[in-house]
Amino acid sequence: MNKQGNLYTILYIAAIVCVVGAALAWVSLSLKPKQQENIEIDKMQQMLSSLHITSEKENAKELYAKYIVDSYIVNLNGEKQEGNAFDVDIAAEIKKEPAERLLPVFVCHVDQSTKYILPVYGAGLWGPIWGYISVNEDGNTVYGAYFSHQGETPGLGAEIATPHFSQQFNDKHLFVNGEFKSIAVEKKGQKPADGAEYVDAISGGTITSKGVQSMLKSCLECYSTFLTNLQTTK
Amino acid sequence: MALLNNKNKSVLFNPLSKNNPVIVQVLGICSALAVTAKLEPALVMGVSVTAVLAFANVIISLIRKTIPNSVRIIVQLVVVAALVIIVDQILKAYNYEVSKQLSVFIGLIITNCILMGRLEAFALGNKPWPSFLDGIGNGLGYTIILAIVATVREILGSGTLLGFKVIPQALYDAGYENNGLMILPPMALITVACIIWVHRSRNKDLQEKNN
């Protein structure tokens, strides 16, 4: 057969594609469970970080089971919904109308008091940013925060993932005079006009900082009824 | 057949210095910038590139006589892309932390010029065993440079090496500060340039003649 002919070339490529496709499918299927476990452990570690608990890959599951005592899904009106909170894909929920979103809540028990972890998700400069905010049982005070990102600029926007940035959120209040205000991220020396509590932005990382601010506002606003309910039951 | 006769030896060892892919052929610079802020991802990247390059070389060399000339680049790309995806999947399963750090750069091994360069220049015209050695040699040559750059950048930029503190606390107390600029990509270029400078001044035969 002529090796430079069209028929040979087409058959050759078809055969290569089939072989490679089959090999990749097999690899992907056989490694899937292990990868899924890694992703789950990573998520647990991120949540634990928002409670100021550092965990290793090995003990993350154990610590998670110890501290996170309950998890459920609420809707915009603070009513509980069916479903597993851990499996909710925040990135997909954020695209829905607020009234239709599934809002996961993770209940934890740390130092004899109850905390609620709320996931947040938004956009930075180059790609998605996300985080977990833990709130005290008064439904108002932030206990801890954790942020991460996919590809913000190292040394600038990527600084949101450092404790230096996230620790600023400790003990801030989401409500001012009973009204939901979120937490603003402002350039050093500036104050938000609406009286919200604020933290310092990252110099050189303005767009990422603004991204954190709008992520907190848009995500936590959906929880405001849930948080208000916590405040009144207290 | 001797597995390591003189010709094979030079195929394996030349890329380490005299014919280094990064500092002599100046290939694969993009990833040298991206993954060298810390030593660990740089080493993983080096090992990944070496593995992909060696196996791609062997596979292409094995099928070199059957590849139709008009689609040979496509065949090379398919082989490399498949190997890269396999490496990516394995890292996600067994070293998730590093795979998160390297993120898109593993996928970008496909576009690493060293791969296409070696497949086109060597594997298409040589037997599998020398091709394998060529892949290992070039991969190691790439890894060595990445490791040197990453060591310099991690020590000066973060004061650590493989995550361990190496700059004593006393120095920080005396007013020493980590150089934030070392973390940024431009310093990788400057470090590579310094290595090229030193390398060329030690190897006179690499220098161009002034006319």
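The longest helix of chain B spans residues 128-158.
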